[in-house]
Amino acid sequence: MFLGVDIGGTTIKLGVVDVSSGAVVAESSFPTPKTGSRDTATDIAEHARDIKSAFPEIDRIGVGVPGAMNRDRSLVRYPPNLVGWKEEPLERYLTESLPEFRRIEVDNDAKVAALAEASFGAGRELSHFLLVTLGTGVGGAIYSNEGPFKGIYRGASGGAGEFGHMSIDINGAPCQCGSRGCIEAYLGQQYLSERTRKKLQIDPSIHSILRDRLSDLTPKIIASAMHQGDEFATQVFEEAGMLLGCALANVANLLDMHVFILGGGVAEAGDVLFRAAQTSLRARVLANLRPVVEIRKAHFGNQAGIIGAAMLVRDPL
Amino acid sequence: MFLGVDIGGTTIKLGVVDVSSGAVVAESSFPTPKTGSRDTATDIAEHARDIKSAFPEIDRIGVGVPGAMNRDRSLVRYPPNLVGWKEEPLERYLTESLPEFRRIEVDNDAKVAALAEASFGAGRELSHFLLVTLGTGVGGAIYSNEGPFKGIYRGASGGAGEFGHMSIDINGAPCQCGSRGCIEAYLGQQYLSERTRKKLQIDPSIHSILRDRLSDLTPKIIASAMHQGDEFATQVFEEAGMLLGCALANVANLLDMHVFILGGGVAEAGDVLFRAAQTSLRARVLANLRPVVEIRKAHFGNQAGIIGAAMLVRDPL
Description:
Nucleotidyltransferase, domain 5, 2 domains, alpha/beta, five-stranded mixed beta sheet, 9 helices
């Protein structure tokens, strides 16, 4: 049993994970400090010590963070949703605070979630898959089994998997990354909400219960309107799925990738999004891929982070 | 020394390659038979036997083909430019015809060319690169060094590297693959020529010496007009480079890929194409990649096929 830690923008979760089954044996959580990575490490250390007093056999900790890592994963680089973080040696801070643990590793949260899916989830029997996280931003992780290599594909400097910045339209929607037409600029939470709001404002003939929620639109609210039968809300997710399928087709063609696992809040929109994505994916891929491409829902929701983080110290990536 | 064979749509080349240096010690060639894979194998066998009588120590043959392979590389699948080929067990035909050789392997031509560049060419010191072949079509091969794995990235069923069908515009130019906006639909030889012809026909105010060549436009002719100072021809390659850079940016972001090696006839357009591609690549990638992304010219031209094919039997991919 290892300790998995999932650092989020608002909450940090810790879980004791049985890495032979993926079961979470115990869990705790606390609010993410707004004062930087040192304080975060101190708080995690305190909780980890509490857990170790109850489970003294635990001597490894895996940590998932919402940011990019450098090549050897010693530094977390500019995580957009963690206040006061620049380039932070989180692994070192934790190792210094927790000498009683033999091994501590840190990795990007999407990569950690892909590890959970590969080990016990929707990617269990697969040699290759792309995990897509549809959350505040759109993230991803490439899982590959190439000859002697098996694990998360990292690329030249460790940052591979940035599916959110796959552009599907060079003249498309501006993305905060500086490019245009990135899939994140359509499906990222704020972008999706903002596009929906604008459509309602521009075209007063659209009937939708979302008109009452214009000031606080979120993908969750749009999805709930869809589930209440709102036609416009349904169209929002049909379009989102169609665009997502186009971006996935690019990955399918480039990497000969057959399976795409979707997780994160926006994936909760469910069938409408998945069906539209599958249809456009099929229509866009090379002929030989049409019968084999497939979109699956992530198996793990909230717990992907702690389970995958624990797997990080079982299987070195 | 091994024998490398490069099967093209019009010519088949054979070369005796010193795989310690990449030097081609002897070469021969003959026209590609128009009567299918069995006759091709028979003709190759005849030439290989001639070569073996001069170099009796040669006992391995590597072969590059312009088509996709199945996962274990036993079948060449529907090569578009080889007349009468469907799913062809070329390796078996060659092994049956040439029992005096101990080992024969077949692979896709772009993957073989990437192996030549990785071993002795523009990719020599790199851990990761994408080779792009700008020819009749646009092809590619991903070279990766991920932990214990080092070589051509193959994906779930062996077809990874199809960069030509990276779409940069979901509403863009129709591609013969059935999708839209594929980079091949802009830079493939026929597409590039056809787009150029149409522009000249639609806008009679364009001054260009290409007007005299409307019936037989090729990228080579357009490039030669550019080198004579034709402004419109220069714009054609500036646009091509700009579009190429956008497609490369998608690969850079997804795979954390820093270096792109361009080969094939269209790459001969030279500086104008390369500069435009580099500019749009830099403008489109994620901020952390901007200082490191780089486009290089392939080191090997015509001989990439035979050198890489010979490397195929030295280093199993």
